[in-house]
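Action item from last week, closing it out:
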Amino acid sequence: MSPYQHLTISEREKILVGIAEEKSIREMAEELGRAPSTVSREIQRNTVDSTYSANQAQQNYTCKRKACHREPLLSYLPIKQKVQHLLLHHQWSPEQISKRLKLEGAPIQISYITIYRGIYAGQLEDRKLINGQRGIARKLRHRGKTRHTKGYQETRGKIKISHSIHDRPKEADERHCIGHWEADTVLGKTGLPCLITLTDRYSRYLLSEQIPRKNASFVTPKLIAMFQQLPKHKVKTVTPDRGKEFAKHADVSAMLDGLPFYFADPHAPWQRGTNENTNGLLREYFPKNEDIANYSDQEIRQSIDELNKRPRKCLGWKTPYEVFFDIVLHLT
């Protein structure tokens, strides 16, 4: 890094005084602790009609200094529009945008740090696309989440489980292959329709369907139907939580050639982190306390497809869809 420092307004005023006192270039340079060539260039550049102005010299320096910087990447309309489109219409994170563009070798390249800076600097705001005090920053995933207080006791009814998660095969724990699923439900308004979700641990591929209520009588046939639509080699185990909606898991196993269920420990959502994280992503499309019955089956399928075609860091910026079906897509 160069140790050179630009002349300050104070130094320019001393040069002006030196010129008035008819001092030589070397005398002025010695007083300032600068090279004679620096003082000489300063006088030549900023002397107009045989008059040197310290104030005008400082203004000229400020203008030139601003002009010497590269324009921010987000000031270029094609880059700005591309980032806005992926961020607002597809709910991609800045890091997903940056890494996927790089993976595909797109002509537009931008770092996720630059995108974050642009968000908080207001460079991506467009009132035609989004409203609100914090604007586009509200579209970022990181929001405060409520947690159970210390000593919280589970009040839901207990169900009889077939296997503990600690007995689950090693290949499922270590995500060696496709076919080991995690199951849960995503609620809308209490007592009204909800979503049942299945997430593959290896590919993060998501299946989701609407059911009338969070009840075992509705969950059981829906689980059977969702698994029957998949090839048998892609259905090996299921890991749900201990909610009463999975109380009839034995009926599902009986209909699916003994498909084993491995239940997570009570109060241990991290043991089903893949599904919990995916449910959090679903909340971008289906907010809490909003009636899911307001969404058509087509809208739900479209939202699921968006998630399955969103690049993931844990997959090397491939999408769950690409990994699950072993194909390559062009998304940008």
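Closing note: The chain is about 40% helix and 10% strand.
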